[in-house]
Amino acid sequence: MKKISMLLLGLTVASSAFAMKVGYVNSQELFSNYTQTKIIQNNLNKQKSRLENEIKEKEVNLQKLQVELQAKGAQATEAQKKAFQNKVDEFQKLVRDSQTKLNREEMSRLQEIDRIMNGAIQNVAKKGGYEYVFEQGAMKFGGDNLTPKVLQVMEQTKKLK
């Protein structure tokens, strides 16, 4: 009798050792519901609008210069044509540089959110004793939804600029 109870106890311990705690998160939901995402998107939109206004203003000035140059027709000197072309080149460089700067800023901010999200996932997984955390779409059955807990941890992190 004693051997049977020891065997049952051994099987119970062995079966619990094989049980894994698995969770999942919805990264899209985390990203879109994180308050800092909205703040960052608003800041980027303001920067974009500011740059667009600056570019439109310079474009209008360029168009005026072009009209003046065309009005001179054959009387326009090579120096004037070259000066106009330089302004066109500067304008095109401004457009390219502005877009590159905006793209870099956006990428940097998104990477920071991703870093915060991954840190929060690891934090929740450790505290909850989860061995694996998958993206929600990768889970067909089972697991615990950790998305609300992770979002809560993300919100408690240091606010981004």
TrEMBL record:
GO molecular function, one term: unfolded protein binding
Coiled-coil ranges per UniProt: 41-94
Signal peptide bounds: 1-19
One GO term (biological process): protein stabilization
Keywords: Coiled coil, Signal
Gene Ontology cellular-component terms listed: cytosol
Name of one Pfam family that matches: OmpH
Family label: Belongs to the Skp family.
The protein, known as: Periplasmic chaperone for outer membrane proteins Skp
Organism expressing this protein natively: Cetobacterium ceti
